[in-house]
Design brief:
By secondary structure, the protein is mostly helical. The protein is built from 17 helices and no strands. Helices cover 69% and strands 0% of the residues.
């Protein structure tokens, strides 16, 4: 089978991924995790995303999440598993996703034929993902598929998001970028969240951020003003193209017509999520 152009898979990912990611900004999952005794914020995030891996230690979580400060991870993992077992966290995660989607999309969307069709297409794409060197995708792929279409779509969106993410981490490693260096280089485009937001959510200090910026300058990837050089832009482009190639299998399996249809359907639901306030305003730029 001839591989789809990278842009088609990337566009589909951009339409589908927010259907999973909306839970990170919603109160319902945080409430579900808090009911288990987990601290809101970083502990809940680490536990919720890492729970498919079982009682993973901090080293495993740092490796699979890539751009988070290991010391920040260690403050919350493995302590989270002393509060709630991974199975309980997974159940809370699914309850939180259910409540979030019900609030944001409404009953009519959840029971629509478009929802059922989108779930079927996304699951078909996700089943073709490669497990090799993809720990988060593979761990999530072992979880049962929920019966309700909106949760089946959320599950499939999770699989597709982690499949691309796992591949992207391999591309970053090939590019010779550490986790914080990848964040600094992304921030230098001016189209990413601010450095302050990246540091706060990933646990990096201003000193660590400045040191990473200096290393990228020495490699010729940033100029003295902290902007991307031609070499830096080329490295980012190469990493994205490699990510596209590593993420091609789900969309090759689905085929161009079905991939376009999934992009259309998921894009409609994602737009509805945005209109309902699912995603907070994020400041973009290098500041």
């Amino acid at each position: 089978m001839t591989s789809l152009k990278g842009g088609a898979g990337r566009r589909c990912h951009a339409a589908v991924s927010p259907l999973h990611a909306c839970v990170y900004f919603a109160p319902e999952p945080q409430d579900e995790y808090a009911a288990l005794g987990l601290e809101r914020g970083p502990m809940a995030y680490y536990a919720g995303r890492a729970a498919p891996l079982g009682t993973a230690d901090a080293g495993t979580v740092t490796a699979t999440f890539y751009n988070f400060n290991h010391e920040h991870v260690r403050r919350h993992i493995p302590a989270a598993w002393d509060v709630a077992a991974p199975g309980a966290v997974l159940a809370a995660r699914l309850r939180g996703a259910d409540r979030t989607l019900r609030r944001l999309l409404g009953r009519d969307a959840l029971v629509s034929k478009e929802m059922a069709e989108a779930a079927e297409l996304a699951l078909r794409a996700a089943e073709a993902g490669h497990r090799e060197a993809r720990p988060l995708y593979s761990a999530n792929a072992d979880l049962p598929v929920p019966e309700e279409p909106h949760l089946a779509l959320w599950h499939a969106a999770t699989l597709l998001r982690e499949h691309r993410g796992d591949g992207h981490l391999a591309a970053l490693a090939v590019a010779g970028l550490s986790g914080i260096e990848a964040l600094v280089l992304h921030n230098a485009t001016g189209t990413a969240p601010t450095s302050a937001l990246f540091m706060r959510t990933r646990g990096w200090s201003a000193e660590q951020w400045a040191a990473a910026r200096d290393r990228l300058r020495r490699r010729g990837l940033l100029d003295e003003a902290g902007d991307l050089t031609e070499s830096g832009a080329a490295l980012r482009s190469e990493a994205e193209m490699l990510t596209d190639r590593l993420d091609a299998a789900p969309y090759d399996h689905l085929g161009p017509v079905a991939t376009a249809r999934l992009t259309e359907l998921a894009g409609g639901f994602t737009a509805a999520l945005g209109a309902a306030g699912a995603f907070p305003a994020v400041h973009f730029g290098k500041g």
